[in-house]
Amino acid sequence: METTFHIAVRFLFAKKRAMLMSLSGIVFGVGFFIITQAQTAGFEQFFTQTALATDGSLHVEDRLQDTQDNQRKYIPGVQFPGQITAALKEFENVAAVSPVLRGNVDLDSNSHIQPAQIFGINLEDFLAVSDLGHQIIFGSLDRFRTNPKGVVIGAMLAVHANLVVGDPVVLNQAGRSARYRVEAIFESGVEHVDRERVIVHLPEARAILAQPFGVTYLQANLRDNTRAAAEAPHMTEVLSHGVVPWQEREKIWLDVFRALRASSALTVSTIILISGLGMFNTLAMIVLEKTKEIAILRSMGYTRQDIARIFLLQGALVLGAGCALGCALGASGTWLVANIPLRIRGIFSTDHFVVAWSPWHYVWAIIAAAIVVFIASWIPARRAARLEPGEIIRGAAA
Prior knowledge:
The protein is an alpha+beta fold. It has 2 domains: about 1-50 and about 255-395, no CATH class; about 100-220, Beta Barrel (Barwin-like endoglucanases). The chain is built from 16 helices and 13 strands. It has helices at about 1-15, 15-55, 80-90, 125-130, 130-135, 140-145, 155-160, 190-195, 200-210, 230-240, 245-250, 250-290, 290-300, 305-340, 360-385, 390-395, and strands at about 60-65, 70-75, 95-110, 115-120, 135-140, 150-155, 170-175, 175-185, 195-200, 215-220, 240-245, 340-345, 350. A 6-stranded mixed β-barrel has the order 3-4-9-6-8-7. The chain has a two-stranded antiparallel ribbon with strand order 12-13. Strand 12 (about 340-345) and strand 13 form a beta hairpin. Helix 12 (about 250-290) runs parallel beside helix 15. It starts with a helix and ends with a helix. The mean pLDDT is about 85.
């Protein structure tokens, strides 16, 4: 085996320039594969965290009612939130539940009238199913907690309505109005939330929306968010209410992120594929140029398997060096990308590139490179193993 290894190295260095080109392709292919996957996965994970922090793992919404023609009728809202909350908490994976009463209102800040959505909550319950406590950028939730007439509004809505903490606002809905005080301003990073949402205490929302009982939906948080889609159908049957998991709620954006990950992986993999084609050409040339040496090795007792192993070892050496350097490039590139400033506001809020550090990015990059290099090495190795020493010698003599 040691002799075979030395022969493989000698053959490899016979085409140093060509092999270095193939090696460089594998290094950059593996490295860019890791970097692009870290970026797309990072933004997808960050989007998921933002969605969960704002709207929870799942919503329990419309009540289901079977009709005489075996159809299901959807009755908007949750009529008995206390009973449904108690039943929902019986599920082992449910960590917390919060009732939410939602409705459309006009926000009058004396100088502007803005359409908005009022969200009536019980603060302590809502803090357990959202990240509102960490989204406050101005003011204090403590003041909102102690002021029944306090409101918390989104950052974009505050800018459009020219409001700051301490300002009075009037909420109007169908002829009913009430005066409140801005106690805090939050920024979730989700554009439509920050542009429309006004959070008030649940009793105030009941008064202004003229809804003395029931809520729009129950927002729940799960201990394992990944199981939301799997558990939602069973919850729907038990609760007789529609249960919408976050995967269904954010399906469009999740599909977009998955498509981006697949597209970037395929695009970057072409670099590895081109490197593999270059390696195939190089090894094929070595087979043609080293026919005499192969004949001598066969006459010395080397088997077909030994000859094939020499050429496969050449591919393995290039693959090993390329993957090691590529992973180092991927790790350093990911770190550099994570420190590049990038301001994004829309579906989430960030001021720099978001990356995800996952060993699977390295594993898949190595697997892709290994498949390409194996195919590129196996065909020339098979051809070299088929060479017959007698024919080679006779051909040389002729």
